[in-house]
C-alpha cells in the first residue's frame, strides 16, 4: 500500500478504544489521525483524557498523545478527516445504531466492535477466517443507506471466539448440538482489578445478555447472503446452549464445550482439521493474520490463560483437552484473547480484509 489509510476511532478513551490505539501503532496500512469521544472529553489531548485511566500494559503511543479529542457526535467534522472509522462508543443500542449509520451516510465505512448492528439483516458480522463472503451483503446495505462507499460491518461477541472457529473447522462432521460454558475475563466488562476489586477471588455466574449472544451469533456467522431478501439469513444449526460466567482473570475467555456430531470423527481427524484450518486472512497474508489460526495443545493442563492467551499475538485460538464424552460425543477446552481476537483486534483484522477486498479505500 503506497499511502496509509486515515483512521478515526470513535470511543477512543474506553478500554476497547485504547486497545485499538495500541494495535494500530505502526500498522503498515492504517494510521490513526482522529480520536473521538463524549462531549465532556472533547478538546482535551488524548493523553489528558486518559490520564489515570490508561488500562493497557504498554505506554500510550507517541503518535496519538497530542491528538485533540473530537466530539463523537459531530459526525461531519470527524468524518471529513478520515477514510474510515472503528467504533467502540459507549452509548445505548439505539444511539449506537443511529450514530454508526450517520457516519456511514457521510460515505465513511464503519467497522464496529459494538453489538447494536449485529442483527441488522444487511450488516455483515465477520470472523475473517470463517465468513469473508458475508461482505457480499454490503452492496444491499449501500442501496438501503443510499451510499456509494459508506457502510457498516461488525465483528461478533468476544465470547464466541474460543469455540466458533473450532466448530467451523469440524463442519464436515456435522456438529448438531453444542453445550458451552464460557469463563470470561473482567476486561470484557471494560474493567481491570483496580476498577473492580470485588472480582479478586470471586466468580459471578451472570453476564447480562451474554448467553443469548453466545448461542445466536455463531448462527449468523455461519449464515448466507440471500440475494432475493438482500440480507444475511442465519444458519439453523447446530443448536447451541451456553452459560457465561465472569471469572477473576484480566484477559482471556475460556470455553468448556461438549459437541454431538452426525458423523463419527476420530480424535486424530478432529485435531488434523484444527491444524489445517485457515482462511482468507492467511491466503491474503493480512498484516495481523495469525499464521496458524488454531493450535492444539496435547498437555492435560493446557490451554492456560497465563501461557496461551497471547498465542499469535492474541489473534489465534488455543484448544486442548479433546476427549470422548459419556453423554456427548466429544468435549474440549478453547481459549481466545477477548480484547484482541475478541474485540479490537478482530475489528482490525476485519478492516484489513475489507481493505484487501477494496471495500475500504482512500476517500
UniProtKB/TrEMBL annotation:
Residue ranges of every copy of the Semialdehyde dehydrogenase NAD-binding domain listed in the record: 6-138
UniProt-recorded name of the protein: Aspartate-semialdehyde dehydrogenase
BP-aspect Gene Ontology terms: methionine biosynthetic process; threonine biosynthetic process
Family according to the record: Belongs to the aspartate-semialdehyde dehydrogenase family.
Lineage of the organism: Bacteria, Bacillati, Bacillota, Erysipelotrichia, Erysipelotrichales
Active site: residue positions: 158 (acyl-thioester intermediate), 253 (proton acceptor)
UniProt xrefs under InterPro entries: ASADH-related, Asp_semi-ald_DH_pep-lack, NAD(P)-bd_dom_sf, Semialdehyde_DH_NAD-bd, Semialdhyde_DH_dimer_dom
NCBIfam families for this protein: asd_EA (TIGR00978), PRK08664.1 (NF006416)
A GO molecular-function annotation: protein dimerization activity
Keywords on record: NADP, Oxidoreductase
Amino acid at each position: 500500500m503506497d499511502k496509509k489509510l486515515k483512521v478515526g476511532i470513535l470511543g477512543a478513551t474506553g478500554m476497547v478504544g485504547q486497545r485499538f490505539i495500541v494495535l494500530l501503532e505502526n500498522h503498515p496500512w492504517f494510521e490513526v489521525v482522529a480520536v473521538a469521544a463524549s462531549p465532556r472529553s472533547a478538546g482535551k489531548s488524548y493523553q489528558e483524557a486518559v490520564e489515570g485511566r490508561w488500562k493497557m500494559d504498554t505506554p500510550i503511543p507517541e503518535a496519538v498523545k497530542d491528538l485533540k479529542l473530537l466530539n463523537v457526535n459531530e459526525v461531519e467534522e470527524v468524518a471529513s478527516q478520515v477514510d474510515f472509522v472503528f467504533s467502540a462508543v459507549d452509548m445505548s443500542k439505539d444511539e449506537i445504531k443511529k450514530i454508526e449509520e450517520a457516519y456511514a451516510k457521510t460515505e465513511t465505512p464503519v467497522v464496529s466492535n459494538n453489538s447494536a448492528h449485529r442483527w441488522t439483516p444487511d450488516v455483515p458480522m465477520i470472523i475473517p477466517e470463517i465468513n469473508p463472503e458475508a461482505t457480499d451483503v454490503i452492496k444491499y446495505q449501500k442501496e438501503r443507506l443510499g451510499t456509494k462507499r459508506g457502510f457498516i460491518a461488525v465483528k461478533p461477541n468476544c465470547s464466541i471466539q474460543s469455540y466458533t472457529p473450532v466448530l467451523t473447522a469440524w463442519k464436515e462432521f456435522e456438529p448438531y448440538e453444542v453445550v458451552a460454558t464460557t469463563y470470561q475475563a473482567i476486561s470484557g466488562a471494560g474493567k481491570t482489578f483496580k476498577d473492580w476489586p470485588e472480582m479478586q477471588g470471586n466468580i459471578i455466574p451472570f453476564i447480562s445478555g451474554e448467553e443469548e449472544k453466545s448461542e445466536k451469533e455463531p448462527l449468523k456467522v455461519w449464515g448466507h447472503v440471500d440475494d432475493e431478501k438482500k440480507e444475511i439469513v442465519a444458519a439453523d444449526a447446530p443448536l447451541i446452549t451456553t452459560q457465561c460466567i465472569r471469572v477473576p482473570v484480566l484477559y482471556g475467555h475460556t470455553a468448556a464445550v461438549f459437541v454431538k456430531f452426525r458423523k463419527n470423527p476420530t480424535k486424530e481427524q478432529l485435531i488434523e482439521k484444527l491444524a489445517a484450518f485457515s482462511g482468507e486472512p492467511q491466503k491474503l497474508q493480512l498484516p495481523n493474520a495469525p499464521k496458524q489460526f488454531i493450535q492444539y495443545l496435547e498437555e492435560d493442563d493446557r490451554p492456560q490463560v497465563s501461557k496461551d492467551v497471547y498465542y499469535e499475538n492474541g489473534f489465534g485460538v488455543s484448544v486442548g483437552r479433546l476427549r470422548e464424552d459419556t453423554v456427548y460425543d466429544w468435549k474440549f477446552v478453547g481459549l481466545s484473547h477477548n480484547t484482541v481476537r475478541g474485540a479490537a483486534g478482530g475489528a482490525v483484522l476485519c478492516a484489513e480484509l475489507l481493505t484487501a477486498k477494496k471495500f475500504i479505500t482512500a476517500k
